[in-house]
Amino acid sequence: MKPNIVKTRLKNNLPVLGVLSNTTDPTVAELCGFSGLDFYMIDGEHSPVTTAQVQDIVRACETSGITPLARARSNDAKLIGQYLDAGVQGIMMPGVRTVAELEALVKAVKYPPLGSRGVAPVRAADYLLGDMNQGEFVQFSNEQTLVLPQIEDREAINNLDDLLAVEGVDGFVIGPRDLAMSMGYYDGPGHDEVKRTIGSVVDRIRKAGLIVGTTAATGDQAKALVDRGVLFCLNSFAGLLKSATSEFMKGRQ
Predict the structure, then answer these.
(1) Is the pTM of this model over 0.90?
(2) What is the CATH number of the domain that holds 132?
(3) Is 46 noted as a catalytic residue in this protein?
(4) For the chain, where are the E strands, in sequence order?
């Protein structure tokens, strides 16, 4: 396992910008890295990506120097373990609502004594053929992996104070679209009530001393969020392609 550059930046109160991608093609991850993004989030929820493909995507990330993260499709310890064993350096979990769900996520991501992840001679551990022995790798992995539950539901907001107290969590990523849906706004998060709710959640997470993340469609939006203290900003790969294409196509107008 390599040092987690994204986690190091966040611990030093520095912003990170990256992409959530649902493609199975490792070349896309490689291109994102060489383009200068901080992290590549494999979308295991809204995509056909299989655990067998994750390993090659992670290799592409390592080649181009971008930190590989993943959104797992479910809070399944064995599934999460497969992502991490392949070399993913952090898990973003959608739809976390309760303390029990969040504690289960931490246990799945972390080795003992922080969690219950099983150890094996896997790729993330250099197959236990590298310089670290098993004990050193376990400690290093626990220090380097990110745990980032998503706030996407009114129930999570109702339970937020309790969620903020769970040990082993690095921060929370707000999902505006699904949060708006749970609030009854099916056309998107542009409503004042949704905006006020998100603003309150941001303040509460920051007050707890944890990382805040959410989506940003443009560089200007990302800058405004960073100025607000939201240090983890992500766009979709499709969104970045669309904005770049729209800018480029101005040339034929």
Answers:
(1) yes
(2) 3.20.20.60
(3) yes
(4) 16-21, 39-43, 67-71, 90-93, 146-151, 171-174, 211-215, 232-236
